[in-house]
Structure formats: structure tokens, C-alpha cells
């Protein structure tokens, strides 16, 4: 038997196999085949084989966006060339995605084709070398955070609601929310990290308590303040009492307490809804020129930690940033509002006016 000559040949995405140059066998290569090869590639390659479930879900979701675009534009994905990838990039620009988001989406498209190459579906990666447009916006412009007074108002609202309830059943969700929002706003944990946090990830170092969290292919220990440690313990103690269930090491720390999903893992959407509820209650959610979200609590922790004198490296470790330049954005944000160079110029002008008026008074 001679060597097989295989190539992609049609819009219907078929592989044409020739044997003895006279026998032809057509094997369909569907979009499902592409997605299957991509899923296998993600499982084995991304994060050196240790990518989180959330990362894989994100990659697959983003790849579907590209595959749907190909379908809408009658472009067989395995026949796309560099010009087609550039057209997709232009489509993303027209959809007003940020440069960082476009870069992420193109990276995933590149990975999609890398998976196809590894499975022998194509020979070259058409997305190689296609870059996102340069970032033209100030990265600090997208940082929304709470001032100390606002953070005090938010945490105070939770304490106020807690003081008004009389039964343990009603205290339980508020105790959970207090621990959840406190850890997010003071220690800067990500929503997904608390969503996936299990009881066995609560660690001790002497009298200190911390959380071993996992996100973006890395793990770190988030040390809790004594107050947060106490609030977490109060919540777990009340949970055992109200739900009448023993808490096991593999159980999730933050769970739903509603009747329909009692004891089940609190979803990321649920966490965001909890944060929004208290932001709305305090009038902080929507203000002119600023809208706060659950992620704003992480920004709050980073910004206020640097403002109060914490070292850049310490804050980088706390937030789990791989690149210190990401952490330094928070320093830039704080300096922008607290140390405005324009204020120094105004002070200089004020001093000059004072000297001039004093000089005129003597003349």
C-alpha cells in the first residue's frame, strides 16, 4: 500500500484520502470533531495539564464564539487563513471589546488551531502572529474601588442587618455574607476562589488562620486577620447548628441556605448577587461615573493595602499576581487621587498670592 495523501478539500470540511491515486475515501470533519480535538488539547496541554475546570470552560466558550462567527461568515474553520483571522480580529474591534479582551480571544483561537495541528487536522496554525491592537486606554481607568469610609459603610450595613434579626435561621445567611464580603474586600480574594473553597483548604499556622486558594494554575495562602478568622468560625458554627449537618473536609465553605438548594455550593453568580445586594442597600452600587461590582472588592483590597503602607511585594503575594506590574496599577490608582500633582501647583500659587498680598499691605 502506498502512503496516504491527506488534505482538507471542501466547504463541507471533508478529508480526501487517496489510495493508489484511484480510490477516494471521504471522512467528514465536523465542528464537533474540532471541538473534541480542542478539548483534548486543553486537557493535556494548557497549564501543563493542570488547568482548572473554569479555565477549560472559558476556553471552550470563547472558541465557540469564534466557530459561530466562522459559520455566520461561511468560513470552514479548518480552511481559515491569516486573512480570515484578521477579519475576526476586526469583528472583535467593531464589537468594542478592549485590547486585552481581544488579545485573550485571539490567544484562545490560536490554541484552538494548535489543538487541530496536534491532531493532524491541519498542518499550520493560521492564527500564529496575529496580534491584538495596542492598548490605548489607561489600565487604571477601569479600576473601581471603595474608599475607607465607603468600605466601613458596606461592612457596617451587614452588622446592622445582623443586629436586627432574632433567630439563628435568619442570622446564618448574614453571618455567611459578613465573612464572604470581609474576606473579599480586605484580603482581595477572587470570586472564583471563594466559590471553589473547601473546608479542608482552611489552614492553621499557630494561632493564625489562612485559606489555601487556587486560581489561574497557581495556589497561595491567604492569611486572615483575627477578626475575619473569628467571623468565619462564627459562620461555620452557626451553619452546623442551623443546617444540622456535620461539616466534612470536602464540603464547600460558602453554601446556599435557601430552601431549594440548602447546603449546596454557592455559585459565582450567587456570590455576585450577595455583594450587589449590600452595595445597593448602601447606595454604593451605582454612582455617577462609577459602578461597583464584586470584583471591585478585590480592587479595594489592593488599593487600600498599598495606601496604608504595605509593600508592593506583600500585596502581590496577597492578591496572587504573577506580574508585579499588575499590582503596581493599584499604587498608580491611589497616587492619582491622593497625591494629585495639580494640588501642589495650586498650593504654590496660593503661597505666591499670600506673599504678594502681604507685600502690598506694607507698601
- CATH third-level topology of the largest domain: hpI Integrase, Chain A
| Rg over alpha carbons | 27 Å
| Sheet of most strands | 3 strands, antiparallel
| Mean pLDDT across residues | 84
Low-pLDDT regions: 1-27
CATH 2nd-level architecture of the largest domain = Orthogonal Bundle
Would you kindly provide a brief summary of this structure?
With 363 residues, the protein is mainly α. It contains 13 helices and 8 strands.
Please give a structural write-up.
This protein is mainly α. The chain folds into two domains: 5-137, DNA polymerase, domain 1; 147-338, Orthogonal Bundle (hpI Integrase, Chain A). It has helices spanning 31-45, 53-72, 82-94, 99-118, 148-164, 168-187, 191-195, 226-243, 268-281, 294-307, 312-319, 324-338, 341-362, and strands spanning 5-8, 14-19, 23-28, 202-205, 208-215, 218-223, 286-287, 290-291. Strands 1-2-3 form a three-stranded antiparallel sheet, with no helix packed on it. A three-stranded antiparallel sheet has the order 4-5-6. Strand 1 and strand 2 form a beta hairpin. Helix 1 (31-45) crosses helix 4 (99-118), helix 10 crosses helix 12 and helix 11 (312-319) crosses helix 12 (324-338). Residues 1-27 have low confidence and may be disordered.
Key words describing this protein structure:
363 residues, mainly alpha, DNA polymerase, domain 1, hpI Integrase, Chain A, 2 domains, 3-stranded antiparallel sheet, 8 strands, 10% strand, disordered N terminus
Amino acid at each position: 500500500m502506498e502512503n496516504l495523501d491527506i488534505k482538507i478539500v471542501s466547504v463541507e470540511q471533508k478529508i480526501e484520502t487517496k489510495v493508489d491515486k484511484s480510490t477516494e475515501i471521504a471522512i467528514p470533519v465536523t465542528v464537533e470533531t474540532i471541538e473534541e480535538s480542542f478539548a483534548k488539547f486543553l486537557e493535556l496541554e494548557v497549564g501543563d495539564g493542570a488547568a482548572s475546570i473554569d479555565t477549560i470552560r472559558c476556553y471552550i466558550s470563547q472558541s465557540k464564539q469564534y466557530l459561530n462567527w466562522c459559520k455566520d461568515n461561511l468560513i470552514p474553520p479548518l480552511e481559515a487563513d491569516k486573512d480570515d483571522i484578521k477579519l475576526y480580529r476586526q469583528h472583535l474591534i467593531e464589537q468594542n471589546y478592549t485590547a486585552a479582551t481581544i488579545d485573550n480571544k485571539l490567544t484562545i483561537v490560536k490554541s484552538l488551531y494548535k489543538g487541530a495541528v496536534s491532531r493532524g487536522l491541519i498542518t499550520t496554525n493560521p492564527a500564529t502572529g496575529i496580534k491584538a491592537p495596542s492598548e490605548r486606554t489607561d489600565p487604571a481607568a477601569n479600576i473601581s474601588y471603595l474608599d475607607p469610609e465607603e468600605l466601613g459603610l458596606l461592612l457596617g450595613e451587614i452588622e446592622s442587618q445582623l443586629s436586627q434579626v432574632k433567630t439563628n435561621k435568619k442570622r446564618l445567611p448574614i453571618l455567611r455574607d459578613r465573612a464572604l464580603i470581609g474576606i473579599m474586600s480586605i484580603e482581595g480574594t477572587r470570586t472564583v476562589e471563594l466559590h471553589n473553597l473547601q473546608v479542608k483548604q482552611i489552614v492553621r499556622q499557630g494561632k493564625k488562620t489562612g485559606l489555601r486558594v487556587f486560581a489561574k494554575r497557581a495556589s497561595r495562602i491567604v492569611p486572615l486577620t483575627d477578626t475575619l478568622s473569628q467571623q468565619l468560625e462564627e459562620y461555620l458554627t452557626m451553619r452546623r447548628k442551623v443546617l444540622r449537618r456535620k461539616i466534612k473536609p470536602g464540603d464547600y465553605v460558602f453554601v446556599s441556605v435557601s430552601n431549594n438548594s440548602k447546603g449546596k455550593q454557592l455559585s459565582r453568580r450567587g456570590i455576585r448577587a450577595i455583594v450587589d445586594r449590600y452595595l445597593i442597600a448602601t447606595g454604593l452600587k451605582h454612582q455617577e461615573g462609577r459602578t461597583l461590582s464584586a470584583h471591585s472588592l478585590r480592587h479595594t483590597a489592593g488599593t487600600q493595602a498599598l495606601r496604608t503602607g504595605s509593600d508592593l511585594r506583600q500585596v502581590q503575594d496577597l492578591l496572587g499576581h504573577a506580574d508585579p506590574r499588575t499590582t503596581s496599577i493599584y499604587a498608580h490608582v491611589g497616587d492619582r487621587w491622593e497625591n494629585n500633582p495639580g494640588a501642589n501647583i495650586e498650593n504654590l500659587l496660593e503661597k505666591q498670592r499670600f506673599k504678594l498680598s502681604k507685600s502690598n499691605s506694607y507698601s
